[in-house]
Amino acid sequence: MSLVERAIKKMQQGAKDTAAEIRGVPGAGSQLPVYGAIVETGRHPVLTGVHEHVLPGRQIEINLAALRASGLLPPEHQERQIAQQYRQIKRPIVANATGRGTTKVSSGHLIMMASALPGEGKTFTAINLAFSLALERDLSVLLVDADVAKPHISRLFGLQDERGLLDLLQDRSIAIESLILPTNVPGLSVLPAGQRSENATELLASERMQEIVQDIGRFDASRMTLFDSPPLLLTTESQALAQVVGQIVVVVRAGVTSRNVVFEALSYLGEGKSIALVLNQSVAVSTRGYYYGYGYGESRDAS
């Protein structure tokens, strides 16, 4: 039975049991004002193992009030409800990454945020999930803008001119940690997309990309890394990125994205991945859990 056939079968068994529900929350709009700015904090070395790294000496000051006003964070009257939903969404993700209470997923600390098409609310979900993960006491989170064709997160935080992922892929002499920028949100850092390249797919599919994701984990073993990816049905970059992560979260906009489109997007992910769906802008009322994951192939074997 194929990946798509299994997904269809599972959804037919119970449509409510296939997705996280985030109700009444808009996705990221097409207009992208800037909600962050870089401030100088002073460069300082950090010793990890036998290697000394010099951190950037800069920090992203995220304007949380402006993010909330724009709809990229939940409004105050929905903050507690949405925060609880993201707690329920992240718990299986954290468990898969750490092996707490379940079998540890190989490369489970590397999570790809995906959608079938633009306008599903993927950027909204990525930002809010990153903020929720940053609340974990013994984990940190790195938000990577891997939507290299349209780097929304980089633009939102004023990082569109900063070096980032694509620069690391093209220049092995750059220290990875030198381009990762901490934020004023404790536990959260950001890696911008970097300078555009016509060969982005080949770069993301390269051996260098494998080295980068390994180094990200070596520097900070407690780090969860979220990759905001391009839409699955519009680019080949997302398919290349899917090969290096252990978990994939697919954001689906309720009442807009058809099942056929979702299943076609899932078919691009291949076998052996831990995949979950998040239903965005759902107006349905449910007392059941919000997070349901698809685990295919051998993805749940111990690494």
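(ticket continues) Second input and output from the same batch:
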Amino acid sequence: MASDGGGFFDRLTNLWNGFWSLWIGGREKKNPEAVYEAAINERVRQYSELKKAVSNIIYLRNKITKELEQKNKELKEIAAQIPVAVDEGEDEVAIHLIEKKDTLNAEIEQLNLDLEKTKEEAESAKTSLVSFQGEIEKLKKEKESMLAKKEHAEARIKIQETLSGLSTDADIKALENVREHIGKMQAEADMGAELGDTSLDAKLKKIKAKAASSSARQQLDAIKQARAAQQAEAAGKKNL
């Protein structure tokens, strides 16, 4: 008996090699997500084909089982008919039944062999199907993990470029402009403090302050002289 499942298991061996060959070339390296998606889609397609092949094997197993049940039923009926034919003296009928019984025995023996072989193929096919499905899930998880590692690596590279001054991002430039502007403002403020004592306004303020102090001093001296004159005049009148 020819098995419907022959040949399709060879795809399992070649599938990994076909997947990894997709990584050859620069385009695939630049878009790993697309490569993973293509590999996953290809595996899903292969899984669908494998599932159909497994279904055919299981169908064949069930078909042989039913046929074997039918043959055993016929054999049981013929085994019961042969003694009756012999008792009735129907030798030709008895011979026909015996020949049919021998034919059924041979067919049943072959069906049992076919059924055993088909059962083994069905179990192996189901195991391969489950394993293949697990490989698809494994590849999906690998995709998530590898893409996460890629994003992490890109972030680290960007940080390193920023720290080494290689980054040209707009936000970095904006920060540099703000820092420069604030630095200039601080320098301007420091310059005002340094020039404060030598500015014209400061000198005028000092002169005004000295002038006001000199005027007050003159007025004080005049008051003292007037009081001294008054006291001398009073003392002179007293002595008279």
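Agent notes: The chain has six helices and no strands. Residues 91-163 form the longest helix (73 residues). Closing as not reproducible unless the customer responds.
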